[in-house]
Amino acid sequence: MKVTESRHPTKYWHAIDHDRIQCDLCPRYCKLKEGQRGLCFIRKNEQGAVILTSYGRSSGFCIDPIEKKPLNHFYPGTSVLSFGTAGCNLACKFCQNWDMSRSREQDTLMDQASPGAIARTATEHGCRSVAYTYNDPVIFHEYAIDTALACREQGIKSVAVTAGYINPEPRKEFFAVMDAANVDLKSFNEDFYHKLTGAHLQPVLETLEYIHHETDCWLELTTLLIPGENDSDKELQEMTQWVVEHLGPDVPMHFSAFHPDWKMRDTPPTPPETLTRARSIAMQNGIRYAFTGNVHDEDGESSYCHSCGTRLIGRDWYVITDWRLTADGCCPECGEKCAGVFETKPGTWGAKRQPVMIAEGERDEE
Questions:
Q1: Which CATH fold topology does 57-356 show?
Q2: Which three-class secondary structure state does DSSP give residue 347?
Q3: 197-200: long-range contacts, CB 8 A cutoff, minimum separation 24
Q4: How far apart are CA 184 and CA 13, in angstroms?
Q5: Contact in structure between 114 and 163 (CB atoms under 8 Å)
Q6: What global pTM score does this model have?
Q7: Are 257 and 220 in contact (CB under 8 A)?
Q8: I need a labelling partner for 30 at 20 to 30 A (CA). Which of 221, 274, 287, 297 fits?
Q9: Is 261 exposed, middle or buried (0-12, 13-18, 19+ CB in 10 A)?
Q10: In 13-73, where does DSSP find H-type helix?
Q11: What are the φ and ψ backbone dihedral angles of 84, each rounded to 5 degrees?
């Protein structure tokens, strides 16, 4: 079945001459003639205005553990309804979700759902939150914001999984409705960003500082460590020192393993020892909550009290194996507060992955 594009108005653009307009959503500033799309693919010049062509359409819905986003200190153990669209405003040669983020086919967007339908579905399935993920939600800015507002009315939290490549004005609007974010800090090297993502580092750092200092959005970071590209001791030292200095020691950092994909199939997978080394460097530099990802490492996946070393939350992959936080989120041994967003008890979702179809009757009228 051929999927027809949706056409939703946007506001972050301006005319630059008689036949071109500029998209102002992200630092790419794509300049578009009539009918032309931005690098993200889903924002298009139509009749002299930028429209969003993926509003209300998704590449699929799935209920995941929140730890898979990854978020380890935001309602641990709970379920999250996850979805994305198509396209991306970065061009990462190592993309692990390239089938969606690099898609140029509208038929990728086979699932249709309004913001209200997504919020109701999350409620009916007992999800604590909805995640905008798989591809970067900043490019489906209007759809994500409307969905987050609908979720807020239902008491459902919103989670952005993003590279943080967005301009200040739309950034303010976007993160005002997000309750948590995991931001991919892909490297701490401008050459890496330019060569392997087609983007720049500084706008990402500005996004991180904005989220942490100017919003109530809970923040965690992820860095995919690629052998020979961003895994040197020097870079890891500089990155983690910057995080402590500019964001503070309580922002969790996840170091995850690369596997050969997209345009980097000849690069070897990340050895587990690299992740352990990165975690160690982070903790030596003052990061209180550092984690390994994409490998089986119960020690590296668990949360510890930064004061006395007591294991507070044990994890085995995405399963909570130990919970020792007090009702007010403190260590039971020394009383030190653990940074995060916690309830009295963890969720019990476990490692399940459950695809979800949003039925016709659950859709709002367009």
A1: TIM Barrel (3.20.20)
A2: coil
A3: 197/90, 197/91, 197/92, 197/93, 197/163, 198/39, 198/90, 198/91, 198/92, 199/27, 199/28, 199/89, 199/90, 199/91, 199/163, 199/165, 200/27
A4: 25
A5: no
A6: 0.94
A7: no
A8: 221
A9: middle
A10: none
A11: -145, -175
Burial class (CB in 10 A: 0-12, 13-18, 19+), 316: middle
In tens digits, what is the pLDDT along the chain, a chain of 366 residues?
Answer: 344 457 899 999 999 998 999 999 999 999 999 999 999 999 999 999 999 999 999 988 999 999 999 999 999 999 999 999 989 999 998 887 655 544 444 444 557 899 999 999 999 999 999 999 999 999 999 999 999 999 999 999 999 999 999 999 999 999 999 999 999 999 999 999 999 999 999 999 999 999 999 999 999 999 999 999 999 999 999 999 999 999 999 999 999 999 887 667 888 999 999 999 999 999 999 999 999 999 999 999 999 999 999 999 999 999 999 999 999 999 999 999 999 999 999 999 999 999 998 864 444 443
Residue 261 in 3-state DSSP? coil
Which pair of structure tokens corresponds to residue 208? 């991180």
CA distance linking residue 142 with residue 140, whole number of Å = 6
Residues 6+ apart with CB under 8 A from 295: 257, 272, 275
Counting beta carbons within 10 angstroms of the beta carbon of residue 102, is it exposed (0 to 12), middle (13 to 18) or buried (19 or more)?
A: middle
Is there a contact between 285 and 247 (Cβ–Cβ < 8 Å)? no
* Domain locations along the chain: 8-52, 57-356
The C-alpha atoms of residue 237 and residue 253 are separated, in whole angstroms, by 13
The Cα 366–Cα 16 span in angstroms is 32
Q: Is the peptide bond before 346 cis (omega within 30 degrees of 0)?
A: no
Cα distances (angstroms) measured from residue 200 to each of 163, 194, 209, 262, 269 = 11, 6, 16, 20, 25
Cβ burial of 236 (10 Å; 0-12, 13-18, 19+) is buried
